[in-house]
Amino acid sequence: MQYPDVLSPRALVIALAVCLAGCGAATSPPPTLSRSSPTTTLLVASLGPGAPLHGSAVPVWHVGDQWAFRWQSADGHGDYTWTVDRFENLDGVVHYVVRSGPREIYFRATDLATSLETLSGRVERRNLPPRVGFSWPLSTGAMWRQRYLEEGEGLSPAERAIDWAVEGEETVHVQGGAFRALRIAARFHPTPDLVYEMWYAPAVKQWVRLKEYFPAGVRSRELTDFALR
User: Fold this and answer.
1) Which CATH class is domain 12-227?
2) Structural domain boundaries of the chain?
3) How far is it, in rounded angstroms, from Cα 224 to Cα 41?
4) Largest interatomic CA distance in the chain
5) What are the DSSP calls for 19-51, one per residue?
6) d(CA 55, CA 77)
7) What is the pTM of this model?
8) What is the pLDDT of residues 157-191, one digit of tens each?
9) Which helix (H) or strand (E) holds 112?
């Protein structure tokens, strides 16, 4: 899917320039860069009429909410569980901390943007500013774009530029059930190359299917069970 330089007159376009990195000091200081740190630029468009899927506002998670998944790729397959473990302030902002074994993922509570991911206490990935994987309320036709810096221990900081689009509404059948879901496609800007496709189901406050595209092949994940508080 190509993003035109100018949206059609039918589109409602809101350009927001948000600098989230100034919200407070980082838990551990980011590396000094020789160039300016990227900021977030969101481009949101509504392409035509139609009521959004019911419940597509940002969900509220509770401690103890749990989602079980199965993954499969050319390298094998396995199972894992996400559990909302606690609330924690990061850079002065409330985050959900989701635990999966020794891994913890920090989701900003206001919009589920991903800020930080640790493995056994080691910073595996930090996004500056937090990666905005959703634009609420979700509805078919919405688009947004972001530039951010991704860093981690032992890794060189890398700039990312991603285009997201809600491309449709579907009924998805997985082991965990059948759900109405919004299909979100993420692409490397400015190419049509997919990063992932995600099917987000408001009924479970989570994605129920995820396909990630790597040079070596595709990794698929699906919801197998869930429990909400």
Assistant:
1) mainly beta
2) 12-227
3) 35
4) 50
5) --GGGS--SSPPPP-SSPPP-EEEEEEE-S--P
6) 32
7) 0.79
8) 999 999 999 999 999 999 999 999 999 999 999 99
9) none
